[in-house]
Each structure stands twice: as structure tokens, then as C-alpha cells.
Amino acid sequence: MFQNDFSRLSASPVFAANRMTAPIGTGLLAATLVETTRGWQRAETLRLGDGIYTVDGGLQPVLGLDRQWITPQPDVHTVLVPGGTIDNDADLTLLSGQMILLDTMGDRMLPDAALVLIPATALIGWRGCSRGALPHKTEVITPLFAAEEIIYAHAGCMLRCPGITEGPHAAMVTDFTRLDLRQAWALLSRLDGGPSGGHVARQPARLVA
Q: Considering the entire predicted model, what is its pTM?
């Protein structure tokens, strides 16, 4: 959603290399494949100025890159998503708090929201998705755009990235309907044809964001 001219910011981008502070729950793990004008690239190879294909904004330039390293620790977990689950063409690993744009498939409970944002952790237990742990020190990359954008990863998976004025770890500002964990579990259950299912019965997990 390109709303303003932020090209002047490309000379002084947000760039937080090797910063290790509070646990990180959002951003792209280094091996995540992103569709760019250079083809499908691993997130770790992204450069300032790269054009990335977005869902509703077309081709958008990367104005900033937030790069951080995270190490295995108890309060940081990943979500292992089997290929084909959310239109990803191969197995995908996401951080627990990464927001995913999901098609509601005409869900009767969300008549005004064809697409919604849900946290990756909501997928655990749904269609083979499982909780994982970081096996080793890993780089997390957050591309920053002029405004909030939804990018394509691993072919068809839709992942949210923040705008450069929002920053990578601030409170989220979004134009999309955002579901909390219970709402997300209920939607996922309905997508599988159940009236409620096991998702809404679970206690909300603590998100690391």
C-alpha cells in the first residue's frame, strides 16, 4: 500500500545489524524465499532498493532492512508449516508472531473480511502445522516499505511486513482485520468444516512479538 514518497529515506534506512535485545517473534527467517525482481531470493540476500512483489501494492521497493540475530531460547518458538497448507509450495518455518494474511473463503462469521491477519502461532495443530524450536543462531530479516505491505513467500504464502515509519517491532498499525488467537482458531476450525473444534478450546499461547 504505497501511500507516500519515502524514497528519501533510502539513504538512511533502518538497519539494526547484530542487535540482540528482547526476544523477537516477527520477521523473516534467513531461508524464507521472497519474490523479487531478481527472482525468488532468500530473505538474507535482500538489499535496499530491491523490488518485492506485494499482494495489493504491486512491485514495491525495500526502503529499510532490520537485521537481527536470535539464539535458541525457551521463550522463542517457530511454527513448522507443511507445504501446501497456506499456499506455500514447500515446507516453511515462521516465527510465532509473524502475521499471515489468510483468505477467509467466504466465512459466514466474517462477512466483511475476505482476508484477515492471524499470528503464525495460531496454525499449530491445524493441518499438520507444529511447534518448533530454533536449532541454532539464526538471522531474522524484516524488509520495510513505505507503508504496510503483504509480500509473497514460498510462492503463495502471504506475510505481513511493516512500513518504515512504523518500524519492525512497534505496535502494529494495519488496514486489515486482525484476529486474536481465539478468533483465529475458530476461523481455522470453520475452514475445516467444524462448528468450533479443538482450536477454540485451547488456552491462548503467549506471543513473543
A: 0.82
